[in-house]
Give the backbone structure.
Amino acid sequence: MPSMIETRSVVVEYPTVKGVLRLYDQGVSLKLEQGDFLAVLGGSGWGKSTLVNVILGLEKPIHGSVCFLDHDVTRESFVKRCNLVKTAAVFQRPTALPQMTVSQNLHLALSLAGVPRKERDERIKEALAFFGLDKIERSYPDGLSAGQRRRIDLARALAVKPELLVIDEPTGDLDGSATNLLIPLLRGLNRNQGTTIFMTTALPRQASQAKHQVHLRPPLYLTPENRMIGD
Amino acid sequence: MEKPSWTPIVLSGALPREATDLLAILVMGIVALEASLAATGPTVFSSRLWLSLLVVPPTCALASVSTTTRRTREELALFAYGGSGWQILLRYFIRGAIIALVAFSPVLLQGFLMTTSILELVATAFVLLFAGGLFYSLPSLRRIRSSSFVENYKS
């Protein structure tokens, strides 16, 4: 059976004032099988969010490839990847649409995911209740706290019932109680519903809750001199 | 120590040098040109209308870039929800076309009542819608395609 996701020797580079910032110097190669729960652990600026973007097709690697179900999707968009594996993403920054209420945001996400209209209300009600958002379902995201907006994103992603949940530092803006709730929730989703989870975190304790862990290495700065040596 | 001065603040930003400044100058310039030609220029309806249409691209572009921060948030959300680039562009294209249509509806109505050539009026309306939509959606295309766009997903 093909891996749900496979990255092969992925390397990303960014030009900076100090030289070229090279992430994953040795290349990231990982496999995510159906039903896996993988945590990518690394420090700030080591490329955790970039790896999320590479997997979702929002950034392209300078070397290496990304495969979804054995299809090379390195140059394909997020939408095309979603056609292969139903994917929901939760980013570090809250992404709810500011001109829509909490409930309308979820409706839009579900309609884009192709969830039948009659199912949407039930799923939204469940997701909002689960994340304690039911009392603010008619509020607009801009009037809410960062933690509440993060929970909207989580509710939106989980209401879609994705095959693959990609989640970047899930407890970033959450308070202690919500954090304590979230990791067991992800484990439950993975165990009970078979949702494959790709999570990044800077916290070893959180990463240890996943079935597998990948440790990133610090990035390198390539100046013209050491690039020539490296090449 | 020198006495603190207020002049650097004023001088560092007094001259118009941003894209939005240029667009505003263009809009006002076209309106001013039209006003001056109204007295001395040709009085044929269609020629005056075509001159008015020149105001559509800079005005729509100005409207589109004036709320970049909010729009970027919208675009990030729509991508995160599974939307695609062309869907987002179509969204803005339609919005720009509606803006241009509503703004020019008095002129189009006047043209409908006065003109003998319905074909010319339809062509004018088409150009109006296309220009409005195109110039409203172009800034979004530039944002979405920029390498810094996805950096907004990161903290």
Q: What stands out?
A: The mean pLDDT of chain A is 90. Chain A has one domain: 5-230.
